[in-house]
Design a protein that fits this description.
The complex is a heterodimer of chains A (about 150) and B (about 375).
Chain A (H helix, E strand, L loop, with lengths): L1 H28 L3 E5 L7 E2 L1 H8 L13 E5 L3 H11 L3 H13 L7 E3 L2 H10 L3 E6 L8 E5 L1
Chain B lengths: L1 H13 L2 H8 L7 E14 L16 E13 L2 E12 L2 E17 L2 E9 L30 H4 L1 E12 L6 E13 L7 H5 L2 E2 L4 E13 L5 E18 L2 E21 L2 E18 L5 E17 L4 E12 L9 E12 L4 E11 L16 E12 L1
Classes of the chains: A alpha/beta (about 150), B mainly beta (about 375).
């Protein structure tokens, strides 16, 4: 019985681990994000380059000259999904680059909010604000920017 | 005051993460932000003591703590101040003003900062002291010697800056023009070579500076290339065995050429730097002594992010002072292998191993009765930021 149980564990453990890893990969793959903006932002679309520049502090304006205010999210699936997709940095590398800007006096840290709902709430009520949320999150009061 | 500042940072860093975020978050009405970081380093070296530490016995005399306060009363105007406690061996052990400035950014194309501002020289000068932003425990000393860091980081005056689009096929061009007054403290590493010659500089050096940096963000995603030119004139009151004199540097000229490429988990960078210094030492009744330095340094570095939390890197740096006689003191070659682990967004640790040939930077006869040509150095650092 013990041997049988041991075999079961031996067989099932790798399967379990594979399933777990697979489901984590699926979670990552499904961490789709959308970019939202306050209604005062004139644009309806934004390029990946503009998005990267705004969220890395390289630029504070969109192409048309509109000044925008990026809003970050705390660590999580949506945050890492956004950073991987549009910024090309891990969370720690991304925050390290902002610390470089902050402590060298070249800029202030963007506001960091706790959840999708908090980002929607803030972006809806702040002129020029631009943020990112999970695609299934309700987003009344904000506009979605198409990323080209 | 020092203890108070360190205690404040330690207290803030011990706060639960959410609390830290909340306290570091901008306060709504005044757009106020408070941030900081603190680091503790340890260095062990063979053969030679490094930069005034007793590193051959193992030294923990390497502590930094920084507090930063920024307010943004208008969307285009930002004011801020940053204070630093710095201790490295016999250097520092005092609180200094990193920068205190007003920054007006009219648009991406033009902005300016005035006050005590960071000097935008080379690839890394503005950020070389910001340990939480760096992979390395020690940046390549061939171009960014830590002993002179506090003085060369910033100046009193201003910086005009901007970012100009060159079209989709040409990328963007960033410019920084700077000018003002340089003040090099009496305890700075810049003064060490004079101390080694028996010359004291009790009030440090002062003088005007001006220069500029251009950075071209090429159309190749992640590739940046640039150059800096900096010209300074410095003077100081000096003493040799209580005999008063003057030391003037009519021309201290620095040039930097650099490039960096980042793609996903990979970063490679390189930089070449040349510093030419002509100084004139005068004591009453003695003919003027002319001293010339012509220091050339470069480094090449690469890093790779092994996981979200672990990054590793390797660099090679080399410098030579062509005006010194042939010996191991006129050059330095340094291989460094480093790893950084981020426990969470606030706490990190670094480990770095150096294999050094020559004693041209960071090794002084004041700290070593008989300098040896080779040194192995192991460095550890623990840091917290909020």
């Amino acid at each position: 019985m013990k041997t049988h149980g041991g075999k079961l564990v031996k067989v099932r453990l790798p399967v379990l681990l594979l399933t777990l890893a697979g489901s984590m990969l699926c979670m990552r793959a499904h961490a789709q994000v959308v970019v939202i903006a306050n209604s005062s932002v004139g644009a309806t679309a934004i390029s990946k380059a503009e998005l990267r520049d705004v969220f890395t502090g390289a630029s504070s304006n969109l192409k048309g000259g509109m000044q925008v205010l990026p809003v970050l999210q705390k660590q999580g699936v949506v945050n890492s999904g956004f950073l991987n997709l549009y910024v090309g940095k891990s969370d720690s590398a991304f925050r390290a680059s902002w610390r470089s800007i902050l402590f060298s006096g070249q800029g202030a840290m963007p506001r960091t909010l706790e959840s999708d709902a908090a980002v929607v709430e803030y972006v809806a009520h702040t002129a020029g604000a631009i943020g990112y949320i999970g695609e299934t999150t309700p987003h009344e009061g904000v506009k979605i920017l198409v990323v080209r | 005051m020092k203890q108070l500042m360190i205690a404040a940072i330690a207290f803030a860093s011990m706060w639960p993460c959410g609390g830290v975020l909340a306290s570091a978050q901008s306060m709504d009405d005044l757009n106020l932000q408070v941030h900081g970081y603190a680091t503790q380093g340890f260095v062990y070296s063979t053969n030679n003591n490094w930069d005034t530490t007793s590193s051959t016995d193992g030294s923990a005399a390497w502590t930094e703590a920084v507090v930063n306060l920024t307010a943004q009363p208008q969307s285009r105007l930002r004011v801020g101040v940053q204070a630093r406690y710095f201790l490295l061996g016999n250097y520092g052990n005092s609180i200094t003003l990193d920068w205190a400035q007003a920054d007006y950014k009219a648009s991406d194309k033009f902005g300016f900062r005035v006050g005590k501002v960071k000097t935008p020289m080379g690839l890394l000068n503005e950020s070389q002291d910001i340990d939480p932003a760096q992979l390395w425990v020690l940046l390549p000393q061939s171009v960014y010697p830590i002993a002179s860091r506090n003085s060369l980081l910033s100046h009193y005056g201003g910086v005009a800056y901007g970012r100009l689009p060159l079209g989709e096929k040409l990328g963007t061009l960033e410019y920084r023009g700077f000018g003002g007054q340089r003040i090099i403290g009496a305890d700075d590493g810049f003064v060490q070579p004079f101390k080694d010659q028996g010359i004291t500089v009790p009030s440090g050096f002062t003088g005007p500076l001006f220069g500029g940096t251009l950075r071209w963000n090429t159309p190749v995603q992640g590739l940046t290339m640039g150059a800096t030119r900096d010209v300074e004139r410095l003077s100081a009151a000096i003493y040799s065995h209580s005999m008063p004199g003057t030391l003037t540097v009519p021309a201290l000229e620095s040039s930097y050429f650099f490039g960096r490429y980042e793609h996903n988990k990979l970063m490679v960078a390189g930089e070449y730097n040349r510093v030419i210094l002509n100084s004139d030492i005068q004591f009453a009744g003695i003919p003027a002594i002319l001293v010339r330095y012509d220091v050339r340094g470069f480094y090449a570095m690469a890093s790779y992010r092994l996981s979200d939390r672990l990054t590793s890197g390797l660099y090679y740096g080399s410098m030579i002072n062509l005006q010194l006689p042939v010996s191991s003191g006129r050059y330095q070659k340094d291989w460094a292998l480093c790893a950084r682990y981020d426990f969470n967004p606030f706490l990190y640790a670094k480990i770095e191993q150096h294999i050094i040939d020559g004693t041209g930077s960071g090794f002084s006869t004041s700290d070593n009765s008989a300098l040896q040509p080779n040194t192995r150095m192991t460095m550890l650092k623990l840091g917290v930021s909020f």
